[in-house]
Amino acid sequence: MKGLTSILFCLGIFLGSAQGLVHHKTIDLPKNADNIEVDQFGNIYAVLGTEIRKLDPKGKFLSSFADPSYGAIDQVDVLNALNPMIYYADFNQLRILDNRLNESQSLSMLNLGFNDPKLVAYSDQNRFWVYDQSADRLFQYSLTEQRIVNASPIISQLPLDKPQVNALISGFNYSIIYIEHQGFISFDALGAKREIIYDKDTIHSFDFDNRRWISLNNKGLLKLYPIDNSKRVQKFICPLDGVKKIILKDLSLYFWLEDKLYLYRFD
Q1: Bridge partner residues of 219 (DSSP)
Q2: Residue 196 CA to chain centroid, in angstroms?
Q3: pTM of the predicted protein model
Q4: CB 37 within 8 A of CB 44
Q5: 261 and 57 in contact (C-beta within 8 Å)?
Q6: pLDDT tens digits for range 67-81
Q7: Run of H or E residues at 241
Q8: By percentage, how much of the chain surpasses pLDDT 90?
Q9: Residue 41 near residue 54 (C-beta atoms within 8 A)
């Protein structure tokens, strides 16, 4: 089966699409990283326990930040590359950094009015989304206005079977949550529900770049979805085994495997 997969990929045969992926480069990463993110400039952010390191597009070290008093870093969002955001879930602490990873703001989510914040993600205009588990909805908080400015419908009231939100990713105009073994829900910039994409696959990783989003299931199948649902979903074989995470950036798709980051380009 692995040999057949490789042949299909090398020939550029996609399931329902003529588009292909071409390997561009391989980047060395720090060993034993807990998480990897990439910003729109190709800079890489590696989380190693309590520390986050910023690397240039070739993997060269640029800067780092750590605050061991808050333990391991749970989430990183680099949608705003000038002000990366990190979240310490156990302490409900949000940190906004500058582009050299110096601390710019330290925020207590409880003081901002969130009772049980589980997930955070940047949006537009100095705002970020929060999935509050007790309220079971998304809230958009404005750092400029220092208040909640928008909210989604209650997630459990949407047509899904006892949905539990497992992941949240946001762009400038849309945000997406993942419900394990049920699918994805997209929301517009104000938090109104746009659509539900039902998908019962076991999703290994997914990402979103504001124009389209992509998922990788446990069988090695990649699905590329346009945010405009009038267009066709593209399905193709993942070119690598053992992928820990996929990261979508416009025409580039990164595959993280242990201490390597493989950059592919859509042709």
Answers
A1: none
A2: 18
A3: 0.90
A4: yes
A5: no
A6: 999 999 999 999 999
A7: none
A8: 81
A9: no
